[in-house]
Design brief:
With about 90 residues, the protein is mostly beta strands. It is built from 1 helix and 5 strands. The chain has one helix at about 45-55; strands spanning about 10-15, 20-25, 30-35, 55-65, 70-75.
Length: about 90
C-alpha cells in the first residue's frame, strides 16, 4: 500500500483517553480508544507502544510528555526500517 505522507505522529489525548495517529499534513489516520490509565493517572510508554502495535505501528525514539498528561511520538509502520540517525 503506497502512502503519500512523510511523517506520522502519535498523540496521546489524555482527556479523551485516545491515541491519535496523524500525518505530517494533519490528516488523522487512526484514533484508538484506550482503557483507563493505571492508578497513578498516567499511561506508561509500554502501554502506548502496545496500542501502537495494535495499529501496526511503532514509536521512533521515545515518547515526549506534555504538561497535561498527554504524550507525543514519531511513529513508523512495523515493517519499515528505522531511520538512520547519522547526520547527512
Amino acid at each position: 500500500m503506497a502512502q503519500a505522507f512523510t511523517f506520522l505522529t502519535a498523540l496521546l489525548d489524555h482527556e479523551q483517553r485516545a491515541l491519535v495517529v496523524s500525518t505530517d499534513d494533519g490528516r488523522v489516520l487512526s484514533r484508538l480508544a484506550l482503557s483507563d490509565p493505571p492508578a497513578h493517572g498516567y499511561y506508561e510508554p509500554g502501554q502506548l507502544d502496545d496500542a501502537l502495535a495494535d495499529l501496526g505501528l511503532r514509536a521512533v525514539g521515545c515518547w515526549l510528555r506534555d504538561g497535561d498528561g498527554g504524550a507525543v511520538a514519531d511513529v513508523r509502520p512495523l515493517g519499515e526500517p528505522m531511520p538512520d540517525p547519522r547526520p547527512v
